[in-house]
Write a structure and sequence with these properties.
By secondary structure, the protein is an alpha/beta fold. The protein has a single domain, classed as P-loop containing nucleotide triphosphate hydrolases (Rossmann fold), CATH 3.40.50. The protein contains 15 helices and seven strands. The protein has helices at about 20-35, 50-55, 55-75, 80-85, 90-100, 105-110, 130-145, 150-155, 175-185, 195-200, 205-210, 210-220, 240-260, 280-285, 300-315; strands at about 10, 40-45, 120-125, 165-170, 190-195, 225-230, 270. Strands 3-2-4-1-5-6-7 form a seven-stranded parallel beta sheet, with helices on both faces. Helix 5 packs parallel to helix 7 (about 130-145) and helix 5 (about 90-100) crosses helix 8. The protein is globular and about 55 Å long.
Length: about 325
């Protein structure tokens, strides 16, 4: 793989589940790879939805889940299977920063050319990420490490940013330390949301909760993760009346307040290209392909993601 100057790192984040974070992360990454960029998708969600989606559920279970299950069933030492999974998952990146080690395997931990795209790679997740919170807390108190800077240290140690133009991080639906590490390691973040009251209710709290991480990053190197924008997902014809109010009035007003209060980047926007509710997305997931290479897509939904991916790049570079 050709070397790049340094990747643009972007987290896909919302502490509300079911808003389309994983679908957006996979398909935006795929569109950039389809256009010729070297793209890495990093899954930091212990549920491993992005990993099972693009690596295929069969491959993921066979490599990351079944060996541990078999160890438990046969009453063998679970730690052997666990350590193998950790060394070839995103957990290994965190672990090497905490332990000052080099256990993560680039060869086995970065899955290459997935989804029918030569330039789309993945670092999978593992459900052992649920145990990482305590390790980060312990390391920060005993070694003087910032609890937010662990992932960034690990990525730099393995020089992963040099191989990619873009790194997209699919975050879990929470604001725990793993999620905050993803934000701290990022240049930008994007918030997908359904335009309704339930999905957007926590956005002000989300934005304000992120201020501590942004402040710490500015103190470290003078940079802060910037909100690129909000992606409106699961747009439904049946809910048109309800969603229109949030699309045209409520969310623009909310974003305007964030900008006025200097909580987000002044260029942050609500992306013009929205994502409709469609069965095509579910069909593509079952095929373990992004929409750009799936046989199941319609032209409209592919065009929406294609245009959205371009709009995000334009926002970064204008």
């Amino acid at each position: 793989m050709e070397k790049c100057d340094s990747a643009k790192v972007i987290s896909i984040i919302n502490w509300k589940g079911g808003v389309g974070k994983t679908t957006c992360a996979v398909n935006i990454a795929a569109e950039w790879a389809d256009r010729g960029s070297n793209v890495l998708l990093m899954d930091v969600d212990a549920q491993a939805s992005a990993s099972a989606y693009i690596y295929t559920e069969e491959m993921y279970k066979g490599e990351y889940y079944n060996p541990i299950l078999e160890a438990l069933k046969s009453r063998r030492d679970e730690d052997v299977a666990k350590n193998i999974a950790i060394k070839k998952s995103i957990f290994g990146i965190f672990w090497d920063a905490i332990k000052d080690d080099m256990q993560f395997s680039i060869e086995n931990g970065i899955k290459k050319s997935l989804g029918g795209l030569r330039k789309l790679d993945l670092i999978p997740s593992t459900f052992y990420l649920n145990e990482l919170e305590q390790d980060i807390t312990t390391a920060s108190s005993s070694q003087g490490l910032s609890p937010f800077n662990i992932l960034r240290l690990g990525l730099n140690k393995h020089k992963i940013l040099e191989d990619y133009n873009y790194i997209l991080i699919d975050c879990p639906p929470n604001l725990n330390l793993v999620t905050l590490n993803a934000l701290f390691a990022s240049d930008y973040y994007i918030i997908p949301t359904i335009p309704d009251q339930l999905s957007t209710l926590g956005l002000p709290l989300l934005i304000r909760r992120l201020q501590t991480v942004k402040k710490r990053r500015i103190e470290l190197d003078g940079k802060d993760p910037k909100l690129l924008g909000i992606i409106l997902t699961k747009i439904s014809h049946q809910l048109r009346g309800i969603q229109t109010s949030w699309i045209e009035v409520q969310l623009p007003w909310m974003l305007e307040r964030f900008i006025e209060d200097k909580l987000v980047w002044e260029k942050a926007k609500i992306f013009e290209n929205t994502i409709k509710e469609t069965v095509d997305i579910q069909k593509a997931m079952e095929e373990s392909k992004p929409l750009c290479t799936s046989k199941q897509k319609t032209k409209e939904i592919r065009t929406r993601y294609q245009s959205l991916a371009k709009e995000i790049i334009q926002t970064i570079f204008t």
